[in-house]
Amino acid sequence: MDGFVKSPDHRQTASDATHQAHLDQQLDEFSTLDLQDLRVRWRKLLRTQPPDLSRPLLLRLLAYRLQARAYDDLNRETVRYLNRIARERIRRKTEPGRRNAKAPPSVPPVPTSSRLKLGTLLAREFNGTMHRVTVTQEGFAWQENTYSSLSEIARLITGTRWNGPRFFGLRDKLDSGQAWGENS
Fold this sequence. Notes:
By secondary structure, the chain is of the alpha+beta class. The protein has helices spanning 14-30, 35-46, 55-71, 76-94, 150-158, 164-167; strands at 121-126, 129-135, 140-142, 145-147.
């Protein structure tokens, strides 16, 4: 599932750990459900009609909604950034004289000044196993150990050298700025 940002002043307590374990259990359970069962679970948990999407998309969206409910939704800066992208896409579609209407719009680069906030949960499925990493003050927590870089965790998961932020889907290409504090 996608990573998620908790409130910046988040301090983990026993009840937070229990809540996190319950959320992890729910997310793992969702991955075993078929499309119809996911729709039923959507209605039960969110009390709305589920969107008409494929199983993988509905699974991701349901997981996001539950994480947003548990840890707060997107911050204002991110919402503004996404709205700007949407406005730009609408502007391009309505632009007169546009020759290739099927050409995808250019995607603005991810700001290189972004840092992961404490409590961010990164998740990646690899070889059928879901790996969850939490951002802590000391670095990154994975399987009850703390590591200084995502690349170190990606290397342990895959057995090969990986750019950690790329492995966890945080960026596509490494620009000149080291956005996530990594050197690999």
